[in-house]
Amino acid sequence: MNQHYDHIIVGGGFAGLAIAYHLARRGAAVLLLEAERIGYGASGACAGRAQVSESHRGLHMRLTLDGLARLETLEAELGREFEWRRLGNIMLIEQERHWQWWSEQVAYLQQLGASAAMLSPEELRQAEPLLNVERFLGGAWCLEGHLNPFKFMHAYASAARKHGAVIRQHARVVGLVSHKGRLIAVKTAHNRFAADGVIITAGAWTGQVLQTAGVHLPVQFTHAEAVISEPLPRVLHHHIGLADFYETIHNASRAVSIGVAQQQNGSLLVTEAVEMTERIHRANSAWGIPAIARDLLALFPALADVRMVRAWASPSPFLPDEQPAIGWVPGLENCFVATCFHNTITTIPILSELIAETVLGGQPEIDMSPFNPARFQ
Amino acid sequence: MRISFPASSTSSSERSRAITIFVDGQPVIAYEGETVAAVLLAETRRTFRRTPGRNEPRGLFCGIGVCYDCLVTVNGQANVRACQTPVVEGMRVTTEETQRQWRQPASSARAERGGQADLYVEAAVVGAGPAGLEAAIAAAGASVRVALLDSASQLGGQYFKGPDWQPVPQQDAEAAALFARVRDIPTLQHFVKTQVWGAFPEGDGWLLTLDGPSAPFRIHTQTLILATGAYDRPIAFPGWTLPGVMTAGAAQTLLKSQNILPGKRVVVAGAGPLHWVVAAQLVRAGAEVVAVLEAVPRARFLHPKHIPALWRQWQRLREGWEAWRALRRADVTMRFGWGVLRAHGHEQVEAVTITPLDEQWTPQPGRAETVPADTVVIGYGFLPANQLTRLLGCEHEYSPRRGGWIPRRDAWMQTSLPGLFAVGDGAGVGGAALARIEGALAGLYAAHLLGRLSKEDLHRAETSLRRRLRREQRFATMLGDLFTPGPGLYTLADETTIICRCEEVRLGDIQRARAAGAETLNEIKGLTRAGMGNCQGRICGDLMAHALVSGDVATQEQQLRNLGMLSVRPPIHPLTVETLAEAAEDM
Predict the structure, then answer these.
(1) CA A313, A319, A324, A326 torsion: positive or negative?
(2) What b/e string do you get for A38-57 counting C-beta neighbours within 10 Å, with b at 16 or more?
(3) N or C, which end of chain B has less CB nearby within 10 Å?
């Protein structure tokens, strides 16, 4: 079988599905190939948090704030609900230098019109009565957003299908076929598809997929685990995270840093135990689940009797400079890559549209060149 | 209602010590050894809780700790399974909605737990029913260091279950002999009241994470034998979540282990031997059995092709005959090719609509009848408790005659993962006798892999087992041929019928998720929350799958394969934050 499309997208996570929607909406013939099922990677194993607080200054911040605004109307645009709501995030701060950094960040967020504030321990106690505040100097609060990641993906998927995109699940790409610096076909186990352009949005698997065309992109990944509780009456009012998250997990072979929010159904979703790994897998570990429970208990001693009902785990991709790769793949003139995002849920509504415009030959108003994958050449 | 014992009954008729517990503030007499569920039912309280989403009443359903529907608050701790919690003097049980209390953790929790954190063995056996007992005994008998684990408070599983007010003597003697062997073999350690909450590959072996009063936090083992048994196949029909609808396993556990009459006017519906036996037990215990409904038409039982499979199954034939005779003597209505259509009632079952079925078990509601009843017992066979083989990623195949998804195994009951065995009903429903032989074969082969049993000794031990294995497989095949549900059984639910009892997801929600593009059970789970609750899809998984297929039997089987299995995640039973935190390792 040899079918021809305008664009083939490899990977059915947030990015691939949103790009499929924007391309299809503009009339392109789109095929999306997903190796397993929609959201099998990090997109389906995330807390649903539309992050704002930690944005880097400049381009990231612009994408984040524009994205946040876009999310407000996206359910109507896609014709599907995905449980979008505004939710505050509190970063708990233990060290003086973090207090300093977050004070500046909060001031910057305020300057840009975001709703943000520094909280004293007493204010923390009022915001989250069950929180054990004794370790903390205070917290940095910012109004963010929250959604149901599965419904978010399916909203994009159904909107893409409505515009004629074809989404094939259980269609693992086993090879990209190139000829004279162009991709001429994408092979799955049983099929071979041809397209004018190919977009790789395979998250942690992106490196493997590109490797089949002889291109090296140094996508690395950590393995992250999360635990979910039984539904509870309202006990948490914000997403709670720790200001030293990145320091805690950076370069540690194993680390835990708690992030917790109560979901629409009342469950607590508690992230995350992180492990360095060379192998992509989705299995939970015997150490991770108890370690998350121990750290959660230290933050919320009153939740000792809460039952944990399941867990999940997923590879979480990143690049050595911890910036996304978004752009044309060097040496393959019709192959675009988009992976390793920051604040993925918040920025994807904007980025996916910019990517679609770029792929269709347009000149988007926002310059994404800082994310050009050629920087790893 | 507690059962008043016939004069001829055995010594177990004597009740244990009376104690007082408090139910919603009222003092209630209970007896040591009873579960909270038994005491509530003895007090004719059938509603144990109301659901958070739709405020619907719920009571005892599976009766063996699988479904998490019988949740009550015990001593301030919310969402405790009434069917798994023994009463103690002064216990405070709340069924009414209460403000959930948040408490500080007990600092002494870690000290209370005896034993070591880590135990290293050569073989771990999960489940101490017929298959697990034989596996542990066979392996430990060859000097393998074995740990045998079970979540119940006694060895024996669902099959060797006591105390019984009228025990089957042979079954009792067999159980006693097996339990004695477990206690006597020096290399065999067993841990009861111990829940395995996770299983992980570790090096060339396996790591189990446990929760139990005397169990280690972790067992590291070179070989792993899973003998996790089966549970009643749930069937969704309008009204099936009402208190008073329960599985045959729940009814039998109440009768056999708790001396509690599950109801006064009972309709028993199902397919296969168990619900007949339960119906007879209900009659003997003094219930009025309104009707016993067998989905399989009478003519199919009398087919001569079944005769070879019944050869040498004298014990079973005798039990079947005795059940039949007891029901005839009590003048119980018995209908073949009939089933339950709907249960009616506001707070609990008040009436049941029963219906004739066609060859595909599809209701023919034109001739349906509604009868007053307070209890519906459903026994439509079993589903394998295959959570651990799924969690560990063994290859599975879809085999409707053995209960659905089962792990692929070789002749020694080894799964696709070397050193990992699956035996008994949890690896394909086939009954206790087959389970015992499978267990013994796996135990012997594990011993051989571990270098404790020579090839010659292995083959010597194998010969007679193989002969019996074939006989029991024939019998299991016959049961599968006769009693595997026809597709019509899964058409009883309507759009508003709950499918996922934990998360209160209705059939209509599942159909809408499918229409929205979800292709597999896991996607439907993501969109609807069905299968995300306390029981992790044990109850709704099979129902969800069957609700989404159509066409002839062969087409449906292919569609069921494509829908796949729900993914299983640790903890495979809910555990408190505090319990999990205790097991945290130093990093």
Answers:
(1) negative
(2) bbbbbbbbbbbbbbbbbbee
(3) C
d(CA B162, CA B292): 25
The architecture (CATH level 2) of B237-379 comes to 3-Layer(bba) Sandwich (3.50)
Residues in chain B: 587
Phi, psi of A4 (to 5 degrees): -110, 135
Rounded Cα distance between A130 and A125, Å, is 8
Give the gap in angstroms from C-alpha B77 to the nearest C-alpha of chain A. Answer: 7
What is the secondary structure of B3-42 as a DSSP string? PPPPTT--GGGS---EEEEEETTEEEEEETT-BHHHHHHH
- Residue B210 forms beta bridges with which residues? B196
* Distance from C-alpha of A13 to C-alpha of A65, rounded to nearest angstrom: 22
In angstroms, what separates the C-alpha of B52 from chain A's closest C-alpha?
9
Q: Tell me which DSSP letter residue A328 carries.
A: E
Name the pTM for this structure. 0.94
Q: A310, B522: Cβ pair inside 8 Å?
A: no
Asked if the domains B113-231+383-480 and B237-379 are classified in one and the same CATH topology, the answer is yes
Domain A2-45+150-217+321-376 indexed as CATH 3.50.50.60: yes
The structural architecture, per CATH, of the domain B11-94 is Roll (3.10)
Buried b (16+ CB within 10 A) or exposed e, B164-203: bbbbeeebeebbeebbebbeebebbbbbbbbbbbbbbeee
Helices within A81-218 (DSSP H only): 96-111, 121-127, 149-162, 206-211
Report yes or no: A114 and A52 within 8 Å, Cβ to Cβ: yes
| Cβ–Cβ contact B520 with A under 8 A | yes
Residue with tokens 């290399």: B187
Domain ranges of chain A: 2-45+150-217+321-376, 88-144+220-318
The domain ranges of chain B are: 11-94, 113-231+383-480, 237-379, 487-563
A58 touches chain B (CB under 8 A): no
B147, B221 contact by CB (below 8 A): yes
Q: Is A284 on the interface with B (CB under 8 A)?
A: yes
Tens-place pLDDT, residues B400-451: 999 999 999 999 999 999 999 999 999 999 999 999 999 999 999 999 999 9
The reply to whether CATH 3.50.50.60 applies to domain B113-231+383-480 is yes
Spatial separation of the C-alpha atoms in residues B583 and B7, rounded to whole Å: 50
- Picking from A151, A266, A293, the nearest residue to B577 by CB comes out as A293
Tokens of B237: 């029909």
pLDDT at B567: 94
pLDDT in tens, A148-175: 999 999 999 999 999 999 999 999 999 9
pLDDT in tens, B4-51: 754 334 444 456 789 999 999 999 999 998 999 999 999 889 999 999
* Mutation site, B577, B579, B586, interface A, largest A CB count within 10 A: B577
Q: Do domains A2-45+150-217+321-376 and A88-144+220-318 have the same CATH topology?
A: no
- Cβ separation A309–B517 shorter than 8 A: no
Contact A209, A176 (CB under 8 A): yes
- Contact (CB<8Å) A231/B52: yes
ipTM of the complex model: 0.94
H helices present in B26-118, as ranges: 36-42, 109-112
**pLDDT (average), residues A194-223:** 96
Q: Which CATH class is domain A88-144+220-318?
A: alpha beta
Counting Cβ atoms within 10 Å, is residue B311 exposed (0-12), middle (13-18) or buried (19+)?
A: exposed
Residue with tokens 């876009």: A70
